[in-house]
Write a structure and sequence with these properties.
The complex is a heterodimer of chains A (263) and B (129).
Chain A (H helix, E strand, L loop, with lengths): L1 E5 L9 H13 L3 E4 L21 H12 L4 E3 L2 H16 L1 H10 L12 E3 H9 L1 H7 L8 E4 L9 H4 L9 H8 L3 E3 L17 H17 L4 E4 L2 H9 L6 E3 H9 L8
Parallel strand pairs in A: 1-2, 1-3, 3-4, 5-6, 5-7, 7-8
Chain B lengths: L3 H12 L11 H5 L10 H10 L3 H4 L12 H5 L6 H13 L12 H4 L6 H11 L2
Helix pairs in contact in B: 1-6, 3-6
Chain lengths: 263, 129
């Protein structure tokens, strides 16, 4: 299976592990990630105002690129996924916005949100299948107690993301179980780490992040996994004393392809 | 100078939110991870826009405390979407000459060796126009 892949700014820089292990693991699962040519940064945060157009064009170019190749668009970073899915939804549901965009991008023809967008976790669940994944595991993570940290961007707003139950999600826990480990379920797994507030108010990010780490540990977690470089940064920066790793790294380890990489 | 009626209509228009749907339950503020940092809380944004009391919001630091986590949007029992109101007021404030809150010159002092690019692009998206 070939899919279009949008890595995003951080995956080519500070979150190289998230990117590299995504490639390696996909390959082991029979999926080829075809990186979009000349992709542009999604901007990190979706601007909800109706009259914002320019800030959404980079996502639309990526969506259209995948659409022209008749491929689903896969993202790994929680923020890219959130921005691109919300932009696509706006193209589907706001005809005034779609008209403005299509007239602005006249040379590119028209686009009205036809491309299917999947987070890498959704790809594993819906296109590969967790049962298939389970069969491909060579290094079982049996006995490891792992807490999934969803954060805010993976699941919300649910009316658009449609990834899982936003208050009682299971996709990351099912992923952890497919790799043979024990999933630690805790209350704060879908609460915000503080995001970009750490630029202006590190104390505030620290309070949010600490509450998440303490809650995961109190429920027995030995490790936290995330799909978001900013979540990882905030949790690690604010004193996580258990490992915080990208879910793709755990996947590569279980699939036995981690050692092949130079990360 | 824009009058409050114009600003109120503009904020309602660009947010797409109908503030009169709010039933004052306060769930948005109760679930907000930035609640403690805010002078005006999510439910107050909705109520003050409804009553046309816009100026205090435009001048409040609370605009820059919203984390865009969408918790208030998902958890509102009336589908009001308070974060969209906060966003619309914030844009109204920073779409003004000289109102950018962050400059590229300030970045070197903010970063450490692990700072993800995502942090900076997100902050620029929220603080500048």
């Amino acid at each position: 299976m070939k899919v279009s892949y949008f890595p995003g700014c951080t995956l080519k820089n500070k979150a190289k592990d998230l990117d590299l292990y995504a490639y390696k693991s996909a390959e082991a699962l029979g999926v080829t990630l075809e990186e979009i040519e000349n992709w542009q940064c999604c901007g990190g945060v979706f601007t909800t105002a109706n009259d914002e157009v320019a800030t959404k064009l980079s996502s639309i170019r990526a969506l259209k690129y995948a659409g022209d190749k008749e491929q689903p668009l896969i993202t790994v970073c929680s923020a890219c996924h959130n921005v691109i899915k919300q932009t696509n939804y706006e193209m589907q549901t706001n005809s005034q916005f779609a008209d403005k965009v299509n007239r602005y991008m006249a040379n590119d023809g028209t686009y009205n949100g036809e491309t299917q967008v999947y987070h890498y976790l959704e790809m594993l669940r819906d296109l590969v299948g967790f049962d298939t994944l389970k069969e491909k595991v060579v290094n079982t993570l049996k006995g490891k107690k792992i807490a999934a940290y969803y954060g805010c961007l993976l699941l919300r707003p649910n009316s658009v993301m449609r990834m899982d139950d936003p208050e009682n999600p299971t996709i990351m826990e099912d992923f952890i179980r497919a790799l043979g480990a024990d999933a630690v379920v805790y209350a704060k797994r879908n609460e915000c780490c503080g995001g970009y507030i750490s630029v202006e108010s590190p104390e505030s990010a620290k309070r949010n992040s600490n509450a998440i780490i303490e809650n995961a540990k109190a429920n027995g977690a030995e490790m936290i996994i995330t799909a978001c470089p900013l979540c990882k940064y905030n949790l690690v920066k604010n004193g996580a004393d258990i490992p915080v790793v990208y879910f793709t790294e755990l996947l590569a380890e279980a699939l036995g392809v981690k050692e092949d990489t130079n990360a | 100078m824009h009058n409050n009626k114009y600003l109120q209509e503009e904020i309602i228009r660009i947010s797409g939110v109908n503030p009169s749907k709010c039933m004052r339950c306060g769930k948005c503020s109760a679930t907000c991870p930035a609640y403690d940092e805010m002078e005006y809380h999510p439910h107050q944004f909705v109520n003050m826009v409804e009553s046309g009391d816009i100026e205090p919001l435009l001048n409040s630091e609370s605009l820059y405390k919203c984390l865009s986590c969408f918790a208030c949007i998902d958890r509102c029992p009336r589908g009001v979407q308070p974060a969209k109101v906060v966003e619309a007021v914030r844009l109204t404030a920073i779409r003004k000459k000289g109102a950018n809150r962050m400059t590229a010159d300030a970045v070197p002092a903010m970063v450490d060796e692990d700072t993800p690019q995502q942090l900076l692009v997100s902050a620029f998206r929220k603080y500048t126009k």
